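Example record

The entry below shows one chain as it appears in the dataset: sequence first, then C-alpha cells.
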Amino acid sequence: MSSAPGQKAISPQDASALFDQFRELKHSANNVLAVFLALAELSERNPANYERLAKAIMERAPQLVAGLQAFQDKFSEHLDA
C-alpha cells in the first residue's frame, strides 16, 4: 500500500481491525444514547424518572468516554507506527 510523503500506510488487516473496533464503539454509543433518550422521554411524563436518568448518565457516560479514548489510542498507535 503506498502513501503520500510524510504519511504512514495502514495494512489492510489493521484497517479492518480499526473498522471493527469503530463499528463496536458506534453500536455501544447508540445503545447508551438510546437509553438516555428513552429515560429523558419518560422523565418528561413522570418527573420521578429524573433520578433514573441521572443514574444512567453517571454510570454510562464514563463507559462511553472510555470507549472513545480506547479507540483514539488504538488509532493513534497505527498513525505513529
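Notes for this example: The first helix runs from residue 12 to 45. The chain has one domain: 12-80.
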